[in-house]
Amino acid sequence: MDEFCGSEFWNNSVTWETDSPHFTRCFEQTVLVWIPCAFLWIFAALDVFYMRNSKDRNIPKGILNISKLILTALITILTICDLVYAITYKGETFPVNFYTPVIKIATFILAGVLVHFNRLYGMRVSGLLFIFWFLMTVFHIPRLLTEIRLNNNRVDSEDFDYQESFDSEHYNFVSFIIFFVLSCLILILNCFADSQPQDMKYPPSDKPCPEASASFLSRLFFHWFDSFVWLGYRRPLENKDLWSMNAEDTSAEVAPRFLKYWNQSVAKNSQVEPYNAVQSASFKKSSASINFTSGKAKKPSSILPALVKAFGATFLFGSVLKLVNDLLTFVSPQILKLLINFVSEDEPLWRGYLYAGLLFGVATTQTLFLAQYFHRMFLVGLRIRTALISAIFRKALVLSNVAKKETTVGEIVNLMAVDAQRFMDLVTYLNMIWSAPLQISLAIYFLWQILGPSVLAGLAVMIVLIPVNGVIANKAKNLQIKQMKNKDERVKMMNEILNGIKVLKLYAWEPSFEQQVLKIRDKEVHVLKQAAYLNAGTSFIWSCAPFMVALSTFATYVLVDDNNILDAKTAFTSLALFNILRFPLSMLPMLISNMVQTSVSVKRINKFMNGEELDPNNVQHDTSEKNPLLIENGTFSWGDENSTLKNINMQIESNKLVAIVGSVGSGKSSLISAFLGEMEKISGRVNTIGSIAYVPQQSWIQNATLKDNILFGRPFDKKRYEQIIEACALKPDLEILPGGDQTEIGEKGINLSGGQKQRVSLARAVYNNADIYFFDDPLSAVDSHVGKHIFDKVIGPEGILARKTRVLVTHGLTYLKKCDNIFVLKDGEISEQGTHQELLDKKGAFAEFLIQHLQEVNEDTENIDEIKAQLEGLVTDKELKAKFDRAISTTRSRSDSTSSGGSGKLSRQTSSNSETELRHRRASESPAKQADTSKQNGTQQQKLIESEKSETGSVKWEVYKHYLKSIGWWLAGATVVLNMIFQGFSIGSNIWLARWSNDDAAANDTGKRDMYLGGYAAFGLGQVFSQFVMSLIYSLGAIFAAQKLHTVLVKNLFRLPILFFDTTPLGRVLNRVSKDVDVLDNQLPHSSRMLVAMSFTVMATIAVISYSTPIFLVVIVPIAILYYFVQRFYVATSRQLKRLESVSRSPIYSHFGESISGTSTIRAYNVEPRFINESEEKVDFNQVCYFPSIIANRWLAVRLEIVGNLIILFAALFAVMGKNSLSPGLVGLSVSYALSVTQTLNWLVR
Predict the structure, then answer these.
(1) What are the pLDDT digits (tens) for 213-246?
(2) What are the DSSP calls for 1077-1145, one per residue?
(3) Dihedral of the CA atoms 240, 242, 246, 250 (nearest 10)?
(4) Could you tell me if 1012 and 999 are in contact, meaning their C-beta atoms sit under 8 angstroms apart?
(5) How far apart are CA 650 and CA 628, in angstroms?
């Protein structure tokens, strides 16, 4: 290299062994130039990758990007001038004068090309270019100082003359100063983001996330979040303050990506078996059919490969950031070693300041890398949760009847609420799988460099703990499976209770059902207690591990050889490495616990996602068929061995009204389900042509306005809407309802009568304007005269649907005469079919059905006189006529005797007709009186379901007090005291180590050495036992609190009035008993324990540094004020975001439960995409609330860690300044504690 430059490449005497250090000219012109250039060339591919994947194009030309190009062009021209000058220079030149400018020219051209293409590909910010220009500027500072120094020397020389001395030295000075200024200007321009692209894949939103328009520097420090934090500090945040979701994080973008890979996985695992695969055949008596089944069952698919393929790239990039952070972690102990060496030996003062600066620089770089790592991991977790919730919802809409029997709504809600969340929690720690072993390996390697083979003693301790860990993990997995099973059982029970709460309260069954729920909860708590003992044991083992490793290593080191002296450099560099080791060792049990929980969740989600789906081929849509509805040789079942329908052959002509009749349980509703594809088709063929509308027997009503229930996603047509309201006899109902058609209907139509619900369901079908209509006995829920009105105006030959194909299941005998064709079902088979007259003439199953029905029917529900009049005109056979007359007279005599026998029937009659009377009474009121009433009612009655309110302001002391009281004051107090004792032992052990390392006598006196060793062991044992007792006491206290709070919740729920359940969505209550109870059981105990532990650790650190260097107390006041304000800003914002997120979670579950109960209707109307879209919108809104809380977390982490880095800086600076008065042991103690504070503050945030 000396020949390459024409001067020496490295000179230790001018760079290191001096009081005024500087690099050689050769080093400045080669290494310091080539490193930034190499960086750009190596990572340019990454920028190209981002450009190719960019969804936007064409950023308009503006001052910023044109200025970047002009300055890049100028700096390139300047470098070309340098090259030309070197070529034309008459004096002596060297290869460095040619090669370095050529490398710079090529690099600057590449930078210019990247600027240009970033603009074309819509990249508003380039992190690569920012880092390149930052490195280029920083790496040229040493040369800037050299050039200024040399120029000053030239000017100061006596024979200097400006006119004569424009030599190469002077040219280089001027050229370099211009170069450096241009470099600084380009760096400043790269601190800003470009304007919005013109061509964007996603339309710009009303409130875009500021991150999109933030510069690289702003993104690095999360500066773009400042305004939001300030807003959250000034006033409680509301939904309107939140930004829109980034388009790439929305369900519309995330879900299809996951589903693409999931469907590929399913298709791969369900490929057709090879021709020689063993097959078995089974004969079904019920259907008289032979089923061939493959000898090899379909292999179940797992969600994991699909998740990896969909979100692996972002995760991988995050892993690279984590790797850099992990490697940087081991730089600090090496600098600490140099710093202790500096204090103990006579070295130039600038080195001490350099070490302090390096400690701060390394720690800050770690902070930025770690913040970006967590940001990406949280984003991946967010996307996984979104994808899983969407996939679970889609799956629930297509589950077959067999699969539905295996899962309940409660279980599926748990999959969305708890299991999907588990992934989110795990993703942030998942990299510890490789990171923990890497950190442990590197720590042992560096410890080997210091302590030699003595490290093997510590390694042996870790190896012994591995099988112990395996046993614990296995036990934890079994407990987690039990826990989830109990949780499912409890949520399922609560779901059933909430669905039937009216019945429960009418029968006064609350105490017995409350006991059932609490019984299941007791089982849960029993498992939680076992887990608490296990966790306390784990905590004992892993808090014991770092101390045992340190003790065994130090003991072996000093005992194995008398020449091994434990001085400050050895002790505290080792201690810093042991502190690093403590983190992965303590993280492993948490990681294992999280992985165990997630593996259970994976199995549960896999089982659900592999559930059998409805076969889309059950119904074909062959348009070449003559008739719109057709079943040929159809045999159907509900997923069990027995066939519900057999030998079904039916064709229904276009625009005809067809009735299906039969006794109860004959399979009428099943026949309609077969047409809709809801049943399992064993044999035969089903074909439908055209769109379908369906009115189920049990009407399905959404929690929306009455108008929205009727429109059902269709555009509003006022004329048609009013015509349908009139035809479906809903006009009088609209007059009764407080808000008319804008009245909000509660969950499951809770504020409508049975008849009203059925008429709304009917109006929905009619408004849908389909080609085919299926009516599953809709007239049975309404009064007979209303039924007649609906039949005449809607279903019958003169009704709105006269030109549609209609299939009517009915028991109303008066309507049959007006039907074009009648199918009679008996024991799941069509016994006969024909017109009303033809069937009467046959005197077969239809006649039997009529007689049986006439004998069973009430005179109130059927117009007996009208039926009699109809039959007299149609029945010619005397014998049949006599049978009908006998049946009619039997019905009348039974009806008369019931009326005279008591008031039971009369009250029933009053009850059934009350709705009609109320309607007539309301209709007869004067319009003025009605208007007055509606004014009094106001808008409150129109809105039945109140939106969930979230608290504002700080969490009241009463809440904390209530939780601590639930834990128990003694247990809570004991936890704090034990934490203080633990920190006391911890500080004591390190001060003891400092004294030992400073005591020269201990090197020669074995008695003194053994005393120090014994004392160190005693302090360590004190730490371990206080940690174990604290962990056990707090875990049990938290379980008691969770049990008490759950009991209070359940007791209060059962004692709430019916009105509460009418006006509160079921999902909101389920959210309380599922997700919120899970937080009480698992998350809150862990978070609060960590909070207390980390708070005491920070206090202990400050105490130790202040003890070592009392001057530190001067700095701690401004640092504490800074910390306080950052914390205050964060807490105000984060707390409100958590509340908004919790409130936005309930609608997801409410909508989900509602959709599951109406799957057959949703499928019949073919509106699955709309419901999926609605669900995804609710998930997106939940993520809109959650995303800022992730950013808030990182915003705080960066600021708190910088506060921690300032503590490191000042601890090191004061150690350098007090070099002459401090012992190396105290410096080691102070700085090693400071180094661990950043990690502690990081945990405190989390």
Answers:
(1) 899 999 999 999 999 999 998 888 888 889 988 8
(2) HHIIIIIHHHHHHHHHHHHHHHHHHHHHHHHH-TTHHHHHHHHHHHHHHHHHHHHHHHHHHHHHHHHHH
(3) -70
(4) yes
(5) 11
Long-range contacts of the stretch 101-110 (C-beta < 8 A, 24+): 103/33, 103/34, 103/37, 104/33, 104/37, 104/79, 105/76, 105/79, 105/80, 106/37, 107/36, 107/37, 107/40, 107/41, 108/72, 108/75, 108/76, 108/79, 109/76, 110/40, 110/41, 110/44
Bridge partners for 952 per DSSP:
none
Name the burial class of residue 654, with classes exposed (0-12), middle (13-18) and buried (19+) by CB atoms within 10 angstroms of its CB.
Answer: middle
Between CA 563 and CA 566 the distance in angstroms is: 10
Closest CA to 79 of 64, 101, 63: 101
Give the pair of three-digit tokens for residue 866: 């009208």
DSSP code of residue 639: S
Q: With CA atoms as reference, report the closest residue to 644 among 618, 670, 617, 613.
A: 670
Cα 110 to chain centroid, rounded: 40
Taking the C-alpha atoms of residue 489 and residue 1115, their distance in angstroms, rounded to an integer, is: 56
947 half-sphere exposure, CB direction, 13 A CA radius: 6
| Residue whose C-alpha is closest to residue 226's, from 1123, 1202, 1130 | 1130
- Check residue 137 and report its DSSP letter: H
Mean pLDDT of 744-768: 87
Model confidence over 995-1027: pLDDT tens digits? 888 887 777 777 888 888 899 899 988 988 888
- Report d(CA 971, CA 976) in Å as an integer: 9
Residue 348 corresponds to which amino acid? P
pLDDT reported for residue 944: 59
| Interatomic CA distance for residues 682 and 621, integer angstroms | 18
Contact between 1115 and 1213 (Cβ < 8 Å) = no
Instruction: From 613, 637, 572, select the one nearest 989 (Cα to Cα).
Output: 572
| pLDDT digits 0-9 by tens, 471-502 | 877 788 788 888 888 888 888 888 888 888 88
Residues 6+ apart with CB under 8 A from 624: none
Contact 658, 820 (CB under 8 A): yes
Tokens 């972002």 correspond to what residue?
Answer: 314
Nearest to 327 by CA among 384, 365, 278, 290: 365
Going by the DSSP 8-state scheme, the letter that residue 1222 receives in this structure is S
Q: What is the dihedral of CA 1003, 1008, 1009, 1010, to 10 degrees?
A: 160
- Smallest CA-to-CA distance from 228 within 1167, 937, 1130, 1221 is with 1130
Strand-pair partners of 415: none
At residue 197, φ and ψ (nearest 5 deg) are -60, 155
Alpha carbons 1111 and 1117: distance in angstroms, whole number:
11
β strands within 772-869, DSSP E: 772-776, 805-809, 821-826, 829-834
Is the pTM for the entire model greater than 0.85? no
Residues making up the chain, counted from first to last = 1246
Cα-Cα-Cα-Cα dihedral sign, residues 888, 890, 894, 896: positive
Tokens at residue 248, please? 């790439």
Q: What is the 3-state secondary structure (H, E, C) of 326-374?
A: HHHHCHHHHHHHHHHHHHHCCCCHHHHHHHHHHHHHHHHHHHHHHHHHH
Contact 871, 907 (CB under 8 A): no
Q: What is the pLDDT of residues 39-72, one digit of tens each?
A: 999 999 989 988 888 888 888 998 998 999 999 9
Strands 680-688, 657-662: pairing is unpaired
* Token pair 């509340």: residue: 1139
- Amino acid (1-letter code) at residue 997: S
> Max Cα separation, the chain?
145
Query: Would you state the structure tokens that stand for residue 716, as one six-digit string?
Result: 């509003």
